[in-house]
Amino acid sequence: MNKVAVIMVGFILLLIVACGSQGEKTGSYNFKQGVGELQFRFLENAPPEKIYPNSNFKIVLEADNLAAYDVVNLQVAILGLDQTYFEISPSEQKVERLVGRSLTAPGGDKQFLEFDGQSKSISPQAFEYRAPFFLKTEYRSTFEFVDTICLNPNVYAIYDAGCKPDTQKSFSGQGAPVGVNRMEEIISPGAGAKVEFRLFITNLGKGKVKTLTVGKGELGGKPLLCVFQRAEDPTGKKVQLGTEAQEATLICTASLEDSQSYKTTLAVDFSYDYEFIEPQELALVR
Predict the structure, then answer these.
(1) Under CATH, which number does the domain 38-140+275-285 receive?
(2) Residue 33 pLDDT
């Protein structure tokens, strides 16, 4: 084998190893962690930095779903613009679904929303007019909390060499703008042993959680009773979380049947309605 052939074989082997490592890294990434949310940006020159009187222009908005869950019933509206100087059509755009980030779609779903604008005359005494407006976004989405926990109904057992429960845990999020940031586990031992989980859910994003609803809860595959501490409805399943850093407490309870410690899975899913309003402006110049 000549020198050129040896170099080529070595280069091919290096590419195979590099591609394999990259595939393993992508395949093992968990998108349902940290904070991920719907993000928007205006395309360059849409709208233009300067808009001249009696002219047409475009507002093009890129909606990018960086959460790990689908966004549905997305509504984006341009509000508060003075129609003396500008007309926008349509004033609202709707998107049925934007797919979230996953192993099959690591970048999430994107969509461009286009608004047609028309400027009007500016006052003869004015050189420039800055028109403020609001970009209002509303949508519905979900997130799920899953964790491996230890249950020990007999905390005073001397010879139980199994797992040890964590009374408190903290989390970075579940890949959404809303998430569980900490959990407390409280076990009532002895006959008729019970466990209580307190999940503290926080608004981690830039907007407002209009309604947060708890769905199905399971402990080791069995149904788990979960209700909010300060629920907005008689069922205890809904709460208004509000703006950034505001917190809701979900209490989940279950009876324990085994007498020895063991590890199992705690899973709770949620849905929420989210809204955020961002101030913007257009510049009308002579």
Answers:
(1) 2.60.40.10
(2) 93
Q: Where are the domains of the chain?
A: 38-140+275-285, 143-272
Token output for 67? 């959460």
∠ at Cα 134 (130, 137), nearest 5°? 155
Question: Which tokens is 175 given?
Answer: 């890949």
- Give the position of tokens 């461009």: 112
Tokens read off for 113: 């929303």
Residue range 143-272, CATH number: 2.60.40
Q: Is 207 exposed, middle or buried (0-12, 13-18, 19+ CB in 10 A)?
A: buried
Report residue 87's pLDDT band, with 50, 70 and 90 as the boundaries: very high
Give 32's pLDDT tier (boundaries 50, 70, 90): very high
| Neighbour tally for 283: CB within 10 Å | 13
pTM for the model: 0.84
